[in-house]
Design goal:
single chain, 388 residues, alpha/beta, Quinone Oxidoreductase, Chain A, domain 1, Rossmann fold, 2 domains, seven-stranded mixed sheet, six-stranded parallel sheet, 14 helices, globular, oxidoreductase, oxidoreductase activity, zinc, NAD(P)-bd_dom_sf
């Protein structure tokens, strides 16, 4: 089959690779209908996250059709149109029992690679380094899905392929970020980043009852889409102080909760930008974490900081602000299996349309060009849907 592979830092190619096979009686093979670019892929493409090997198929957000099932798959049938959460769950371990599916104790066969860094291992994820399981990714014609009955969600007829695609990752990640905020009526929520995850976090905060949601970014097309989804917007490159804007919007206190949806390659301005870029370039730190620092400082006393961005080791972490202001810090990789079913209801009711994230629709053969456009934010690109 044809697939988009990683061959080194900023070296991608579409190549012929082996078709996936059933390895476990609970496996399912999915023919990929749609997959998409994701900002978290850029971190290993740019060389800030180790663990990729030459020829690895990457990509983790996808939907498609079941074409083969293992002998012990009970409820997932051939021919079913499905969406698959990016993190792989077993639905049998303690973490899955507590709806923390991305922390599954079963699905990462390379747990020993994470333990020295994290203390314990996460679950596996498609196409995202060998530390996260070494699974082949979704930028391919076919994908092996372990524990098919747990990880394949049948897509109702009223949901389009383009809508279902983002239920694999962007929608549940953004929704989880809003869920972490424990939103009450009247709350003001600020969201750093208006990429796909940040946009879905902003929309989800409104669906959860926030009175005002303020999206912070600098890219005009992203800010325009945030407004279309119901958020107010701040272009941080056009204001003297984001902090002052947020205090003014929240009665002088600061937002009740903040959501960081940027991660380790954040852009900023002034001396902070120069400092972070220099240290990251020299690999003296992995993270440019300006957005997270700013979110922590902006949050009101007693508020919640919800972190969705991918981070490694960041410099100048404002722990004093968290402690002295009594902030609650909440974070995780997305627990998609917890949320997918309710997204179908939101779509049926007309409250959510994830397909608005697609600005470009290309064949997988154009995957290298898609990632160049996505990474460099050219031609108004927010997300590229890739069709194998």
């Amino acid at each position: 089959m044809r697939a988009l592979v990683w061959n080194g830092v900023n070296d991608l190619a579409v190549e012929t690779v082996d078709d996936p096979k059933i390895l476990n009686p609970h496996d399912v093979i999915v023919k990929v209908t749609l997959t998409t670019t994701c900002g978290s892929d850029l971190h290993f493409i740019d060389g800030y996250i180790p663990g990729m090997r030459e020829g690895d198929v990457f990509g983790h957000e996808f939907m498609g059709e079941v074409v083969e099932v293992g002998a012990e798959v009970a409820s997932t049938t051939v021919g079913t149109r499905v969406v698959v959460p990016s993190f792989i769950a077993c639905n049998r371990c303690w973490y899955c029992d507590h709806d923390m599916y991305s922390l599954c104790d079963t699905t990462n066969p390379n747990a020993e690679l994470q333990v020295p860094i994290l203390g314990s291992a996460t679950g596996g994820i498609y196409g995202y380094t060998h530390e996260f399981g070494g699974y082949a990714g979704s930028h391919a014609e076919y994908v092996r899905v372990p524990f098919g009955d747990v990880n394949c969600f049948a897509v109702p007829d009223f949901v389009t392929d383009e809508q279902a695609l983002f239920m694999s990752d962007a929608v549940p990640t953004g929704y989880m970020g809003a869920d972490f905020c424990d939103i009450s009526s009247g709350d003001v929520i600020a969201v750093w980043g208006a990429g796909a995850v940040g946009l879905m976090a902003a929309r989800s905060a409104l669906l959860n009852g926030a009175a005002r949601v303020i999206s912070i970014d600098r890219i005009p097309e992203r800010l325009a889409l945030a407004e279309r989804l119901g958020a107010e917007t701040v272009d941080y490159s056009e204001v003297d102080s984001v902090q002052e804007v947020l205090r003014e919007a929240s009665g002088g206190r600061g937002p009740d909760a903040v959501i960081e949806a940027v991660g380790m390659e954040a852009h900023s301005t002034g001396a902070q930008e120069a400092y972070d870029r220099a240290k990251q370039l020299l690999r003296l730190e992995t993270d440019r974490a300006a957005s997270l620092r700013e979110a922590i400082i902006a949050c009101r006393k007693g508020g919640i900081v919800s972190v969705l961005g991918v981070f490694g080791v960041m410099d100048k972490f404002p722990m004093g602000a968290i402690m002295n202001k009594g902030l609650t810090l909440r974070s995780a990789q997305q627990h998609g299996q917890r949320y997918v079913a309710q997204f179908f209801d939101y779509i049926e009711q007309g409250d959510l349309d994830p397909s608005v994230l697609i600005t470009h629709d290309l064949p997988l053969a154009d995957g290298v060009r898609a990632y160049d456009m996505f990474k460099n934010k050219t031609d108004g690109c927010i997300r590229v849907a890739l069709r194998p």
